Amino acid sequence: MEQHLEQFIQDIKANPTVDLILYPEGYCQVTHLDEVKQLAKRFQKSVVMGYRNEQNVDRALIINKRGETLLDRAKTPETMPLFMPSTIEDDGHRYGYVLCREIFMGLDGLKSEEDIQLIFNPIGVGMFSEEQYADWSDEAKKIAMQQRFIILGTSHADRSYRNCGFSIPMAYCFDKTGEPVFLSKNDTRTRIVDTEAKTVVVLEDSLPCH
User: Fold this and answer.
1) Strands (DSSP E) along the chain, which ranges?
2) 21 — phi, psi (to 5°)?
3) Nearest-5° Cα angle at 27, 21 to 33
4) What is the DSSP string of 98-150?
5) Helix, strand, or coil (residue 11)
6) pTM for this model (two decimals)
7) What tens digit of pLDDT does each residue of 71-86 get?
8) What pLDDT digit, counting tens, does each position of 111-141 carry?
9) Under a CB-based contact definition with an 8 Å cutoff, are residues 124 and 155 in contact?
10) Is 181:141 a contact under the CB 8 Å cutoff?
11) Quick one: which of 206, 128, 205 has its CA closest to 170?
């Protein structure tokens, strides 16, 4: 949750071999979208994140490496079924997207006859308890196992969850068998994940949480 895309700009410039960048729910404002698209096109990287529109409402966003918007939809209200489209195709790859708590409806909303290579879960402020952290990661693992695709999620970590005074930042990646490629808690460093080799590199020079 930054004013001028500081960490995003650092990450997209410093990692030329990365194909796709995943950022949390609500990371940028609508006024930053043109800059995000320009950076995606300039550095030839797909971008997945959440942003807030003119009414400060969270929306889902996927931009391809040509700077084109592939997905831009509202966040699902908690009492409603998962909004569609929840899958998109880009250059022969099919992606799924669940924004924040939509992960708990993922098994219903992401049913598809087409193979999905990756599903993304941008998360808001993080977890408000150890129990929620366990429930969230368990749900992600269950989706990966039942749907047989890789799932990745990340939260930001700069304010408390619903004014409770704190939040637990998290990020995760489960493979198609439900095995964790990584599962992090209270660690805001940037990670590079190779989804084929199932390896993870932690960048020690990541910007600190504000």
Assistant:
1) 20-22, 28-29, 46-52, 58-63, 69-74, 87-90, 93-97, 118-122, 150-154, 170-174, 180-185, 191-194, 199-202
2) -115, 130
3) 80
4) --GGGGGGHHHHT--SS--SEEEEE-SS-BSSHHHHHHHHHHHHHHHHHHTSE
5) helix
6) 0.91
7) 999 998 878 877 766 8
8) 665 678 899 999 988 888 899 999 999 999 9
9) yes
10) no
11) 128
